[in-house]
Each structure stands twice: as structure tokens, then as C-alpha cells.
Design brief:
about 45% helix; two-stranded antiparallel sheet; globular; alpha+beta
């Protein structure tokens, strides 16, 4: 869900997280992964503006941060 939110394909996420594309595909299909791999993926997605959230009673989810508004004076 996070990858789709930023409009990345499997290869782009893999490149930005410095992991193999096959690893991303396996994780998305439900395979287990090392915590270090999950951390790399999460950091790459967070750098792209994804916030990982836990809704009360709704379970985990993601949202995109709103871009900062530009100062019209600058």
C-alpha cells in the first residue's frame, strides 16, 4: 500500500532501499524478511513522504504527508 501511495514500482522501491526487487516481491506476497530489510524499506518510503500509522481499532495503515506550503514571499 505504501509503495502504491508514492507511485513506485517494485524495482524503484528496491533501488531506493538498496534491496533486491525479488525481495520486495516476496515480502509483498507475505514472506518473512529480516528486520534490517524491513527497516530499509520503511526508511525509503518515509523519505518519500509516507507515514506509517496505527488507527484506533482500525489496524495499521499508511498516509502521505502533505507537502509543505511554499512561502509566497520567497
Amino acid at each position: 500500500m505504501a509503495r502504491a501511495a508514492v507511485g513506485w514500482g517494485v524495482r524503484e522501491l528496491a533501488k531506493k532501499a538498496d534491496v533486491a526487487a525479488n525481495t520486495v516481491t516476496r515480502i509483498e506476497n507475505g514472506a518473512d524478511a529480516k528486520q534490517s530489510t524491513m527497516d530499509r524499506l520503511q526508511r525509503a518510503l518515509q523519505a518519500a513522504g509516507v507515514d506509517f500509522i496505527e488507527e484506533n481499532g482500525g489496524g495499521p495503515g499508511v498516509r502521505l504527508r502533505k507537502p509543505a506550503k511554499k512561502d509566497p514571499k520567497k
